[in-house]
Specification:
alpha+beta, 50s Ribosomal Protein L17, Chain: A, about 15% strand
């Protein structure tokens, strides 16, 4: 019995799952929208929302620029280090703190949306899009590398 056991195992060992969630969160932040299976999409929300919360928590301090105090700079560094545990690329981390954090600053949760799309041809797995709410189609385009 799995009473009070949180999370889906998805047929993977825990290090593989952790790496998969980190990669998926990073891709979501970079591209704004990703397609995956419904089970992964539902579980991904639990990992993406706390990372976005780190970006929101210090957006006002980052906006102050040079007027930040030493304590505020320490808060910014702490938030970036915490987000860096999940977000694996510099581009995604920069986008989190410069674009995504300020965009969701007035919102109290619910940063991601699930859109059920199709059934995958090979194994008939139900597929879904996971996207960041309220970000336009220009954001969802691939970043310039």
């Amino acid at each position: 019995m799995r009473h009070r056991k949180q999370g889906r195992k998805l047929g993977r060992k825990s290090p593989h799952r952790k790496a998969m969630w980190n990669n998926m969160v990073t891709s979501l932040l970079l591209h704004g929208r990703i397609e995956t299976t419904e089970a992964k999409a539902k579980e991904l929300r639990m990992f993406a929302d706390p990372v976005i919360t780190w970006g929101i928590s210090v957006h006002a301090l980052i906006a102050k620029g040079d007027a930040t105090t030493a304590d505020e700079k320490a808060q910014i560094i702490h938030a970036k280090r915490q987000a860096r545990l999940t977000v694996k690329t510099r581009d995604a981390l920069d986008r989190l703190f410069t674009e995504i954090g300020p965009h969701f600053a007035t919102r109290k949760g619910g940063y991601t949306r699930l859109l059920k799309t199709r059934t995958r041809k090979g194994d008939a797995a139900p597929m879904a899009f996971v996207e960041l709410v309220g970000l336009g189609p220009t954001f969802a385009a691939a970043p310039a590398a």
